[in-house]
Amino acid sequence: MALPKYKTSRANTHSRRANWKTQAAATVTCPNCGAPALPHMACPSCGMYRGRVYRDAIRSQFSK
Ligand SMILES: [Zn+2]
Predict the structure, then answer these.
(1) pTM over cut 0.85
(2) Which positions, given as ranges, span the membrane (predicted)?
(3) Which residue has the higher pLDDT, 10 or 45?
């Protein structure tokens, strides 16, 4: 295993971490209600995914 010879300077650490940025989540438009939804997920507005309603399954999952 190679070992670093020198400690990484604070400036190097900070300049590297300065490039960490957040990105907006990619969304698709729900074909049922037109609301933005995450791809490959049931629509948060109407609960539809690939022609089936998954809202009851989602509710029971989060109402424990
Ligand atoms: Zn929808």
Answers:
(1) no
(2) none
(3) 10
